[in-house]
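User: Can you fold this complex?
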Amino acid sequence: MQNYEAVIGLEVHVQVKTRSKMFTRAAAGFGFPENTLTDPVVLALPGTLPVMNRAALDAVVKAGLMLGCEIAPVCKWDRKNYFYPDSPKNYQISQYDQPVCRGGSVEIELPGPARNVMGEHRRIPLTRIHLEEDVGKLNHFARDSLIDFNRAGTPLMEIVTEPAMHTADEAFAFLTALKTVMIYGGISDCDMEKGQLRCDANISVRPAGQAELGTKVELKNLNSISFVRDGIAHEVARQLAIVRSGGRIDQETRDYDGQTGASQSLRSKEQAHDYRYFPDPDLMPVKVDDAWKERLRATCPELPFEKQRRLYSQYQVPYTITCVLVPDRELSDYFEKAAALSGQPQVAGNWIVNDLLRELGHAKLTLGECRVRPEDLAGLVRLVASGTILTPAAREVFAEMFKTGEKPGAIVEKKGLKAGASSDDLERWCREAVAGDPRAAAEFRAGKESAINAFKGPVMRAAKGGANPKTVDETLRRILAQG
Amino acid sequence: MEPEFHYRTIAELAALLAGRKLSAVDLAQGLIGRRKAVEPAIRAFNSFDEADALAQARASDERRAAGRSLGPLDGIPIGIKDVIAVEGQPLTASSRMLANFVSPYDSTAARKLREAGAVCWGRLNLDEFAMGSSTENSAFGATRNPWDLERVPGGSSGGSAAALAAGEACACLGSDTGGSIRQPAAFCGVVGLKPTYGLVSRYGLIAFASSLDQIGPFARTVGDAALVLGAIAGHDPLDSTSFHVDIPDYASEISRRGGPWKLGIPKEYFGEGLDPEIAAAVEAAVRFYRGRGCEIREVSLPHTRYGIGVYYIIATAECSSNLARYDGIRYGHRSKDAADAVDLYFRSRAEGFGAEVKRRIILGTYVLSSGYHDAYYLRAQKVRTLIRQDFLDAYRDVDALITPISPILPFKAGEKADPLAMYLCDVYTIGVNLAGLPGISLPCGFSKSGLPIGLQLIGQPYREAELLSIAAAYEAAHDWHTRHPDLEKSIAAWNAKNPGSAS
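Assistant: Here's the predicted assembly.
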């Protein structure tokens, strides 16, 4: 049977995080009452004009620098003309033949053979990144539709990949990696539920070994990263079924419904738009010179996968821990501080990934709201490492740190959790424990070695974990030997 | 105070106001009276809010009484073409599409006029969306030429020119995309200035062709035009195409500069089709400058003959996109019979736009369409660059150019039914827009039939002070601008010829 290969390219729209809109001073935002983030420019009232938001251009140049793109020396604007009720001017200000960024790539990681094993890394080449303005939102009701223009005019980056992916997993990995880069750069929060990241996929199949691309189908409305994966898998399967049964693929745009897992045709090639692009005469081209680029290059953070490799080699933290730390730039910064100050990176990593994240999750807090500072977590790690306190006591100290934000040393003092610090108490607790269970004492003296464990629980409870198990064992044996 | 001051210049009125010999309210009342007498015949205004105008005049008097006068324009009624937004006033573009639209915001030009104390004086008629050269393409009826009510006032800013010529305002704002200030100024015997592209903010000007549109003043004298220009010019952060340039005190610049200048006569502007009476008047003006010691040179603008073609490609391409926003969704005319969203577009636009606007939208859509874009739009942009270069080359030898404004005298209403014949009349004015240059129209004589003739002076980018000085030198030695139409006689004649007409 003939083998087929799927070819996938993505068009990703990412909302740029700016205070105001792309071409006017009206505020940008999500979740505000309908039509409150508008002004005469947003609503395209007669006579209004666009003025470029430089912060948005900064963001796309920065994104381009992070992804290794070539930055155009001039940022030029074009009008894309089409009628739709969510588009107030009935043209969108976009970039046609001179995108801000060309080329570049996104490093992705494919799923590994097991969860705790790093997968293969690849680079997905980009065609271009350009800047444009977002449209409003249509809300459909039984008899009519209402339009909310709050989103209209929000700066939007369109990132177009080469047709260089072949599986749904690759597309999934691409979006995951892209999202992390955007968040790292402070370019976008990429919250798909808020529409800050949206994805269309161009999918075709061809006989394996054939260079020429097959007829492409554009898949729209892939509004979560999982839907992207599922939708592409579904579409590839649909096309393979058609070509294997001797059919032909129609060039069309299809709508994927993530809920039902089915797709349906939106429009065929014949209905394709003629957007009548031309340079927007209301906007002057903006020069992006070397000084501008260098200013932004200085703000580019280390890329996520570079950081992951460094954490791995510099701190020898396990892959699984880096997988948790790296996607969150703040968390990984937190880790690096705690790791450096504690001198025990792996232990610090475990505290963060296991205890800190669990507590933050329970308390529904962000890292920024966390009262445990990295230097204090490092202090806690050092207290354990030096034997000053024991792990069970450390958990109690941590809980207190999380609650109050106090320094670990102060909590140990206040609660008297220093291991071995109160030998008189330990002596007393051991005597009480032996006295409290004469049967076990008799058994031990009769040679049943394991009976000693019966006393350890009460002693540790009395010590609230602040006793060294070895000391407890020795003390109990001495007392029992004394008879 | 004399009762008749509707033909006084701003300079004269400002002196009367400053000397407390006239109040802004009296001035407004006087002009309201004049307006009532002549407006039914002229039909220059789309709307006029008398109470609002008087309130603005009262505020001006109060400022002056408190010693806080805002300068020579404080209290001066200035009419505004109905494509320039004034907060709280109708903004119709003389289109059914915007018949009920009231602007919620001020254009930068209107805001600056208010800051200078001027009284925003009604909304002036135009060819719908500024598309036309006769003010006949208005959804609210044609404006008439005060010099001959059977003739058109020119366009598209015909309402602005006619209101001024009829003594219904002290100055007006218009907009000029291909001659829409200069040609009606010539047809109505007043001064009209189209500034350098980028000198006056377009924010709040309803866009026809964004790369060509420019707001400018109509005034009785060059000096008055300088006063109004000084008030509205300057960089605006709300218009990305507005230019960072220092705005001089144009009026005092004019009195400082006396020439002589080197002036160019572009030979392509004196060819076939030019009315001999117009040619004679312009040649007389050339003789005047030569007599004043100016060096006169013939220059060539070799790409002139492509101007109309280039203009009607670029202007229509831009307008097809600029006018897309009038869709019946957010504001403006909305068809009542629409079945769905697409039908709403079709019906609202079919009902809301007039024939000329539709013609240009269709033309512009065509020239931008895939497969035609390169042959028309791209080629036109290249030729536009050549046209601009023609002018810049000429300016290596001369300070300014002298040309006619229009090849023809004001024509009779309905006479030019063929749109192409109308387009061809723009031949001397569109080059200035394509090249982004300043151009001024000033009265330079009358035909034997008593119709005004306009002289065009074309200056160098952002050198309005020099252009105005050259114009003022001519004006100081002639009295064309002091002549006014005998409206009482014209109105009586019109009424006799058109019994039962509404005028």
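The longest strand of chain A covers residues 121-133. The two ends of chain A are 85 Å apart (CA to CA).
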